[in-house]
Amino acid sequence: MTDLSFLYPVEDDLRRVEALLGDHPPEQHAAIGLALDHLISGGGKRLRPTLVLLSAHLCGASIDQAVFAAAAAEMLHTATLVHDDLIDGSLIRRGVETLNASWTPAATILTGDFAFARAAYLVARTKSVRLTQRFAETLMVICNGEIRQMFNGRHDGNAVEEYKKRVYAKTASLIALSAEAGAILAEAENAEETALRTYGEKIGTAFQIVDDVLDFVADEDTLGKPVGSDLRQGLATLPVLLHLRTGSGSSSVHQVLNGNRSNNVVQEAIQAVIASPAIEEALTIARQHAGQAKTALEAFPTSPHRRALLDLADFTVDRHF
Amino acid sequence: MTDLSFLYPVEDDLRRVEALLGDHPPEQHAAIGLALDHLISGGGKRLRPTLVLLSAHLCGASIDQAVFAAAAAEMLHTATLVHDDLIDGSLIRRGVETLNASWTPAATILTGDFAFARAAYLVARTKSVRLTQRFAETLMVICNGEIRQMFNGRHDGNAVEEYKKRVYAKTASLIALSAEAGAILAEAENAEETALRTYGEKIGTAFQIVDDVLDFVADEDTLGKPVGSDLRQGLATLPVLLHLRTGSGSSSVHQVLNGNRSNNVVQEAIQAVIASPAIEEALTIARQHAGQAKTALEAFPTSPHRRALLDLADFTVDRHF
Fold this sequence. Notes:
Two copies of one chain form a homodimer.
Chain A: H1 11-22, H2 30-41, H3 47-59, H4 63-88, E1 92-93, E2 96-97, H5 99-102, H6 105-124, H7 129-151, H8 159-185, H9 190-217, H10 220-223, H11 229-232, H12 238-245, H13 251-257, H14 263-275, H15 278-296, H16 304-318
Antiparallel strand pairs in A: 1-2
Helix pairs in contact in A: 1-4, 3-4, 3-8, 3-16, 4-6, 4-7, 4-8, 7-8, 8-9, 9-15, 12-15, 13-14, 15-16
């Protein structure tokens, strides 16, 4: 299952989401409109909107409400990316130039803020107070994770625990919210909401682990950025942490994490991680999470939308992009 | 009326608002907590929370809901200030160091984002979908105003029109929202909501004009920043625009607006504006707005809360800080 067949049951709904995302509200300066269009049409898998819509169908929520929630999830994701890129100084995102490569920092900050406001507006249009609160809470978790990473240093005592927290804050929290959104809108049973949230947290974690593996093993054209970009910045993701845990950890990796960024050492470190069993071990952990995600869905009867969510769980770990 | 007696009817409510603002949610890293406490306790007149609470009493809204809305208004205001200061490069705000003077830009961006999330969370706790939407719309207006200022240049053809738009986006929009919030929460008649919104827009405009006047005539200790700070950055506020319109506009002012920032010329320009009738003319316009604000309240019967709102309108133009 590496095709995108899980999109079929929500293709029509996704077109409505695209229309909302491409909407230009009157309070939007043409420059912001262009910037956001550029970022939103710059690709992305629409993973979060797809999850919102599938979960809405699964729980019998109003699809009219769900399309607003789906657009809000993608808009919130976009807003966090805009500020992330500015903070990281990344010049490429989704293979296209990030805003901060061509804009001033000030314009980038404001474009991100505007996208936050549009996300808040979109989620409020669902008229669900609880979902609106959950979006705000999730944004707090995301910002907080970034701040923690900034202040707690990047590789201290319990590095794997720190990695898990970072993955939750950075990726899994919003994916979990997207997956539970349908249950919240449908005012479904607690058990259903919890099952979908667990599913989302698990595939979110799997998704980020695979991202971190692909950062080492994908080719640069597919990645749209240099291989090993996190390690280059001194950030230890799961493949690196597993590589170090085997004891066979190469000295070059230690050197990079201790601040040596000379190109030779960085290249050697990247090659050492790629050649080690850590890559396969990380993928195994990702597959375990995807398996747990699928198990969580056993609470729901068979349906095309449950099928699509199961396929999507497989996709998160079998993808090559 | 330059005392703060308009606070009396809502003093107890304001203490509840302070408690909410000082709350440290579990998702908040200690560093963000410290930063926000510093910013929030750094002063500020609590104008927006006071308006929310007075308007809630006037319209008979639930005060339990209104305290959340009041805290949300102050938190949103704080969030925009954090990013504003980063954009402007200001080192002092409310007489205290701004975050960006002591923090990295990245930490400042994230603290602002976190404050946006907390504002969104606080307003969602009112359980009013409409008010939540209005907050999101207002944030769009605020960001858009900043972007417009950035892209449209600072002094083009119709400078007074551009100034009015800027004042609305920067200040009056959130003050108008604060003033109408009580009517929205109370689900009051349209006419009452409109009256309070008009009142808020007018005092918001008056407030900003007086700020722009004080930027010239207050002493630096009270201001907590150098006199004429906008003009120093090439930004023409109402006193400058009126000064230029009299025809007696000094050549030094033209030179500063055309990019000459040499200290002698800037000092001469500031003194020219201070010595001209433009200061008194700007104050007259501010007083007209305050008068219109008071007229808008004639729709409401006499009450201590209406009295407080009338006094607050006087305060916006009679204050010296």
